[in-house]
Amino acid sequence: MLPGNISFIGASASNNGLTGKISNATHLHPGGTITVTYNGSVGECFYQTERFWASDDVNVLYPKFKMNEQIALYFLAPLSKKGKGYGYAFKWTKEKMENDSIEMPVDKNGRIDFDYIESRIRELEAYLIAAGFKDCDLSQSERNALQCISAGQKQMRRFKIVDEFTVANSHNILKSDVIFGSGTTPYVTASEGNNSIVSYISYKPDMIEKGNSIMIGGKTLVVTYQPDDFFSNDSHNLVLTINNERGRTESAQLFMVAAMYKSLSPKYSWGDSISKAKIQSDEVYLPVTVDDTIDFEFMDTYVSAIKKQCIAALKQEISQEHKAYEQAVGLSPVGSEAEKEEPKIIVLPDYHEGCVPLYTLRAACGMFDGEGLWEKEGWVDASGNGFTPDPKRHFAIYAKGNSMLDKIKNGDICVFEWYNQKGGSREGDIVLAEFNGFDDESAIKVYHSKKVRHEDGSWEHTKIELEPLNKEYPVIELDENSEYRTVGVLKCVL
Question: Is the pLDDT of residue 295 over 90?
């Protein structure tokens, strides 16, 4: 077809399913409908606002009710969740979709509560827009920043604090001299919690500390970023203002708050507290550019990624709490017929004891989908599973598909031990396997092999079988001509 201005929706997981623009097509679908991919990127759902043409890999849902964008967006979540139960070898065809169901909030008459749906979507959109995080998808630069820090690949060096910051003692305003709740200016102390703000007060204007600065509690070493002008309770507290204009962003200063606490906390304590005199010789460890100057842009990017991860986790938590509320008041079913929420595995940006690296590779528990990309997403806690997690010996990936039910479900995070470090027999083990020389042909299966021993005592494989636990799926058979390797042996499923 010739290029044009009509959207062509295909089996794509990005760009709202748009794979191109065409000039004309028969049987165009109208806007105000939902597209659902049943082949390729199974379960990807998008709301289409304008007329379009869809490939044979896409089902189109025509609403039997008045649907606007808010209502459509609410429908996408349960549709996508239902679609994750399907895969390349078990496609979500039109016939299967006609027999499926999803959970939606209902009114007292048992009908879908569209008013409630619209209000919830508007509330969430307003909050995310106000917070600047309507989109929680990490950009490539944000992913790179997380990976650089977690892998220790970002160049860092020490900077003398007084060379980079103007340091001053704060004013001393006793609690007995103020009335809590008397104004709108934060009253900041050296206490932990609530960003060290204990109340909002009105007081003498000449006692105000300038905001967009970092405050250090003189006796407690609590380090906070204060975006607004504030009052302080103690002249031992230090107010630090970054000299470089490029460092006066909120994100960069939040990074420096963490870096400053990490650099200074081993040195100071309640009995040996920090002071303006002592900080003159102190240093802080910060990322640098190729020119060996402070990399403020990197700090902005890294903190932006952390914020997005936090917002995404919050959205997930709100979703879980909302579902629990609906069940409690009878808006959605409880029990064996209701689909249970799985515990959320938190993906951490930095290494902690007990963690192993998580890669973005989706290994097929079904047929191969060609989506494997070995990029580090973060770290996951694998402790408490009967072995000692070692980031050099163990790694984690996502499973995709249903061929290893009931042990491994679609979307599960599986922890493996690198095979080249394990050695030994693999017979009967669940392995992560690659074959035919392509890294994206990865599968999680039970390993079986047949061997032949030669007269000189050596032996070789004559046949390798990769067996699914779900008997509805076929056994993958490889012969001596197949290029194959075992990547890892399963340790646990998180």
Answer: yes
Dihedral-angle region of residue 152 (phi above 0 means left; psi in -120 to 50 means alpha; beta otherwise) = left
What pTM was estimated for this model as a whole?
0.45
Give the model confidence (pLDDT) of 228-286 as tens digits: 999 999 999 999 999 999 999 999 999 999 999 999 999 998 889 999 999 999 999 99
Q: How far is CA 356 from the centre of its chain?
A: 16
Q: Which residues of 154-187 are buried (b: 16+ CB within 10 A; e: fewer)?
A: beeeebebbebbebebbbebeeeebeeeeeebbb
**From CA 294, how far away is CA 485, in angstroms rounded?**
44
**In this structure, is the dihedral angle defined by the CA atoms of residues 313, 318, 323 and 327, taken in order, positive or negative?**
positive
Rounded distance between C-alpha atoms, residue 182 and residue 231, angstroms = 13
Query: In degrees rounded to 5, what are phi and psi of residue 284?
Result: -125, 140
Write the DSSP assignment of 92-118 as a string of letters: --HHHHHT------B-TTSSB-HHHHH
Residue ranges of E strands in 297-369: 355-365
Do the beta carbons of residue 54 and residue 36 sit within 8 Å?
A: no
* Phi-psi region at 219: left, alpha or beta (left = phi > 0; alpha = psi -120 to 50): alpha
* Phi, psi dihedral angles at 249 (to 5 degrees): -85, 155
Residue 381's Cβ-side half-sphere holds a number of Cα atoms within 13 Å equal to 8
pLDDT tier for residue 73 given thresholds of 50, 70 and 90: confident
Under 8 Å between Cβ of 52 and 107: no
**Could you give the strand order of the β-sheet that contains 58-61, starting from the edge strand earlier in sequence?**
45-48, 33-37, 58-61
43: Cβ contacts below 8 Å, ≥ 6 apart: 36, 37, 79, 80, 82, 83, 84, 85, 86, 92
